Amino acid sequence: MKNTRFFGKLGSLILGLGFVPLNQASVVEAEAAFENLMPVPQEVKIGQGEFRVGKEFGISIGADASSRLLSASSRFLRRLDGRTGLFLQQDYVEAGEAHEAPGLEIATERAGEVVLGEDESYRLDISAEGIRLAASTDLGAMHGMETLLQLLNADDKGYYFPVSKINDAPRFPWRGLMIDSARHFMPLDMIKRNLDGMAAVKLNVLHWHLTEDQGFRAEVKSFPRLHEMGSDGMFYTQDQMREIVVYAAERGIRVYPEFDVPGHATAWLVGHPEMASMPGPYEIERGWGIFDPTLDPTNERVYEILEAVFTEMAAIFPDEYFHIGGDENEGHHWDASEHIQAFMKERGIADNHALQSHFNKRILKVLTKLDKKMIGWDEILQPDMPTNIMIHSWRGRDAMVAAAKDGYTSILSNGYYIDLMQPASDHYLVDPLPSDIELDAEQRKRVFGGEATMWSEHVTNETVDSRIWPRTAAIAERLWSAEEINDVEDMYRRLDTISIQLEELGLTHIRNREMMMRRLVGGYDVKALRTLADVVEPLKIYRRNSDLSYRSFSPYTLLPDIAVADAKDARKFNTLVDGFLKTKHKADEAAIRLMLERWVDNHVAFEQITEGAPALREALLLSKALKELSEVALASLNGKEVEADAVLTRAREPVAKVELQVVDAVERILTR
Amino acid sequence: MKNTRFFGKLGSLILGLGFVPLNQASVVEAEAAFENLMPVPQEVKIGQGEFRVGKEFGISIGADASSRLLSASSRFLRRLDGRTGLFLQQDYVEAGEAHEAPGLEIATERAGEVVLGEDESYRLDISAEGIRLAASTDLGAMHGMETLLQLLNADDKGYYFPVSKINDAPRFPWRGLMIDSARHFMPLDMIKRNLDGMAAVKLNVLHWHLTEDQGFRAEVKSFPRLHEMGSDGMFYTQDQMREIVVYAAERGIRVYPEFDVPGHATAWLVGHPEMASMPGPYEIERGWGIFDPTLDPTNERVYEILEAVFTEMAAIFPDEYFHIGGDENEGHHWDASEHIQAFMKERGIADNHALQSHFNKRILKVLTKLDKKMIGWDEILQPDMPTNIMIHSWRGRDAMVAAAKDGYTSILSNGYYIDLMQPASDHYLVDPLPSDIELDAEQRKRVFGGEATMWSEHVTNETVDSRIWPRTAAIAERLWSAEEINDVEDMYRRLDTISIQLEELGLTHIRNREMMMRRLVGGYDVKALRTLADVVEPLKIYRRNSDLSYRSFSPYTLLPDIAVADAKDARKFNTLVDGFLKTKHKADEAAIRLMLERWVDNHVAFEQITEGAPALREALLLSKALKELSEVALASLNGKEVEADAVLTRAREPVAKVELQVVDAVERILTR
């Protein structure tokens, strides 16, 4: 058994299924067929042999199969056919269909409910004669089909699934992605294709952030000025939101909305300035940051409108949870308002935290009446709040631990802020519930899982997928697979494969890059730009807009939007350098030299493309810095003494909102 | 003045605007700034100098500007900003906005009506101090903004618009694209992005083909079994169709529906078998071809349902035209039906043509009552039909000429069947109304224009854009620009540029190719596949499915789906060979050799990728044929006598539903 593979970490992996003992070569070969699973299942038993897929392959399914499962089965066939080009004969899978030729047999006990805690387990049994997928619910069966598609392999005889038994279930019941459709509006199609992506990596919750200072994105029939005046015409109709709920449920995904109050609420105030703590008028916010406009917790009109909005939304989103945000209200407008100050004094409300609690308790009543559980960001956790609210932790795991000790349920997003452009490895190693966490068994049960959060200050429909994917697949694995599955290099290897498969679902994270490069270059030859883009990453955390250059309508079409969080060639180079410094292998050195020489040569080519592309000229400095950096590295490899401090300093300088990701590695070469 | 450019054909082009006479060098330089216009405007006067675009650039607009024009203006700013990265300061353009810095001033007289024959003209006046766009209607102004975006240029000082005056208006009032959403369902997003593409090349009609044997795609509230049972769940709700009508109107595009009757109607009969000429039951058709199921023209129930459907649709589609199809009804089920034969005999209806006329006259009454003009394919033109119907000619221009002589209005689609995968040049040279056509002035007025037709047998949402674009831009130019604009090489050159710009609107015709290749290869290195794909084209006309291998759920993910109608490298090679054979230039020969050598070398690389990709193995023969072909060409260039008949024959053989496009050129090399 090889320890370098992820299977090495899976205690439950059993080789030599059945009675056939595998020799070492067979083990390696058999393991290879399982290399692309993501998230890694709880238990994989690898056998010997294959189930061969031909055009006669088809699905048999019970007479009581849910319509959702039938649709999912047909989609499975189309994706399998799309990858293999087999011209499968079976068209739409029908309930009670007994497919004649060997294929996939699906057995479920019942249609699952798309609610927190539903059974999502499944068992796959692939033999040379056929495949059996069994699950309590159709939700589990759908997860099993995604696993099966990841098991598709090919050899000189054609396509096959490897003989094996898989027993799988999620580690956490709440595995989410938050999409912020408010700061930058995201068209319906973006939500749909991302729901498909989520299903592929077994995520099961879409948290839909619908209001912000920059936009109110939900149609409200009782108070239409909210969306009409607060959205620049970019909002979801109620029919469209219902469409998303149905689309998600078809894929086993819960959808719950967030209406962020009392802060982050400027867009509400454009149509309803009477809700504000300070007199209006208000305009839709075009900048990024934390803003002062805040709902007035002393005003009954505010609760009237909130109740109307929540009541309409509760009818659209059947999920039991409802997110009220509650974050980052700094209370400046409360401090500045005479009548609010008087209200606090009169009621003995000590400070703004207590006032926000007062507000939260009022809306908790509304939500309770609507049969909804309230969830909000850390800040809603105030001493006097009841424990039937859920804490969504963006500030850190400590807050979550404290909440769990105090009896609150929670989910984690701190560490999963994919908008901050950190590498996948950073997110991957954040565990909501590490084994050494200081919680007892009862308290641990209160940690439901986590959510990747796609805040949309710096993304548009064109770029957003490349911020969500493929990194969110790594977070999905963290939330599904065992804690021990944590080999970063192996995660990255699998991420490369899953990333290609995700685009089959309509996601655009790879393909849009080239399109954006063609637009900037104004032509088809984007090689020099790609070479540079593959070694830079956008400024991380909150540095990208530290100069406040961006507003909501700014162009997100430039180098930092083409660059991604895990710069491909930088990662490759850094790995090579690490290996080389350890082993001094000549082959590694040769590969390093090749990359360095390419970067030296690229500068002239990059200069040429910027002649017709002024938008790229700012990046010339970067291209030059890469060239100089490569030159000193090559000189050092050639045994020359080099004075490189100035070069390293220049190469570390952010340019055009990106930074080179190979500087540390070069420094290690220089100081080896 | 250079005659090689398209301006050479434009009698109205005037160089040296104002008082500054241009010298020859200035002329060439000035002309270059106009090289990317498509469709070519009616009149371009080129001046000297530039209007420079900086971040202070903005739009001023009248207080009575339509909301449509305001939205279009804001979209213009975002696209300009996306290309230039200037961080324009102006956000959303508002009515009556007087932008302080020099920029674009838009003046319109009124909001245009989105109806046939509306004024779409515009005048652009670009001086070094500012740009003025004037038009009678906002529709014209929107065309002007598209022209302006095509005029964006760059030099070492930055981005600019060249000083010029443009006076423009369409040659034909009806410039359409038909999208068949019935054979393969197309999601809403596909319709929207294509509407944006249409607007970019000044098309103004979407003909929406909504029913077929393979699907009934429109929600019908009065007879819901039509869409519920006839669509596999893939249909447009009435809200969604209204959404498309609004989206299109916002872009100056009319939308009218086609409900194809009495043939092509199997999907109607699944839920309503009583409408059929022969007893049911019926199932949704999964094959391609012409099928026998036909509505029963003797059955009052048929007219009842048709009237209900047409009445609902007439309320959704405000356009004055309504397409009833009427094509390819072979009448076999009429012949076979006793009661239909009895009906004909009783009424003295001589043949099936007359029976179809009887049917058409009945539904003409319905449409007339609904205030709609009937349009149908050639076949609806029967001797006794009134002249207030419009003929949509798919069979040929002769039929259109005959119709015009008989007093019928018409549009042309014969020659614009983009689904048949013919090169753009073929479509480009088809003129609906060539100057030598045998029609008098009055008759000519009856030819309203034409429509590209995207029949969807062999496309899915993933591939359809690559069938529509960029070729439809060439058809758009034919329908907008002067007849004399017909230089094929120049059209292709401009098409390459417009193609890149079209993807900015969300179209996927370039970017999806690489995604499809990655899926098939199962990895990122698709070079060998791309090299092959760039010299093959899908089987043309109706040969692709001559073996009936395709059904509606077949995989459209393979080599013929990756290949496009104008294979890039084949076109380049063929042009090089033509030039070389004429001039024997060494540089051409060297370029030819490079391509041939690359194709020889590609075979080994292609063999390697097929090891993990059985779906591509069928194409090995093709790759080998290309290698052999290249080898004989190289041998011939090296002065060797080669016996190449067998090689040429093999290379001409279709493989994997595609064919090599460089065989004739190689044969010309061999026989030079």
Keyword list:
homodimer, alpha/beta, Chitobiase, domain 2, TIM Barrel, 8-stranded parallel β-sheet, disordered N terminus
What are the SSEs and their pairings?
The structure is a homodimer of 672-residue chains.
Chain A: E1 14-15, H1 24-32, E2 43-52, E3 59-61, H2 67-84, E4 104-110, E5 122-127, E6 130-137, H3 138-150, E7 153-155, E8 158-168, E9 174-180, H4 188-200, E10 205-209, E11 211-212, E12 215-216, H5 225-230, H6 238-250, E13 254-258, H7 266-271, H8 300-316, E14 321-323, H9 332-336, H10 338-347, H11 352-369, E15 373-377, E16 390-393, H12 397-405, E17 409-412, H13 424-428, H14 441-444, E18 447-454, H15 464-468, H16 471-480, H17 488-503, H18 511-521, H19 527-533, E19 536-538, H20 559-562, H21 568-583, H22 586-611, H23 620-637, H24 645-652, E20 658-660, H25 663-670
Parallel strand pairs in A: 1-2, 3-4, 4-6, 9-10, 9-18, 10-13, 14-15, 15-16, 16-17, 17-18
Antiparallel strand pairs in A: 2-8, 5-6, 5-8, 7-8, 11-12, 19-20
Helix pairs in contact in A: 2-3, 4-6, 8-11, 19-22, 21-22, 21-25, 22-23, 23-24, 23-25
Which class of the largest domain in chain A in CATH terms?
A: Alpha Beta
The CATH superfamily of the largest domain in chain A appears as: Glycosidases
- Under the CATH scheme, which architecture of the largest domain in chain A would be assigned? Alpha-Beta Barrel
The major β-sheet of chain A equals:
8 strands, mixed
Strand content of chain A: 15-25%
- Unreliable stretches of chain A (pLDDT < 50, length at least 5) are 1-12, 16-21
- Please state the oligomeric state of the protein chains shown: homodimer
Overall body shape of chain A? globular
Radius of gyration of chain A: 27 Å
State the secondary-structure class of chain A: alpha/beta
Separate helix tally of chain A: 25
From the 3D structure, determine the CATH topology of the largest domain in chain A. TIM Barrel
> Largest inter-chain interface?
A-B, 58 and 58 residues
* Tally of strands of chain A: 20
Count of discrete domains of chain A: 3
Assign a percent range to the helix content of chain A.
Answer: 40-55%
The N- and C-terminal alpha carbons of chain A lie at a distance of 35 Å
Mean pLDDT level of chain A: 95
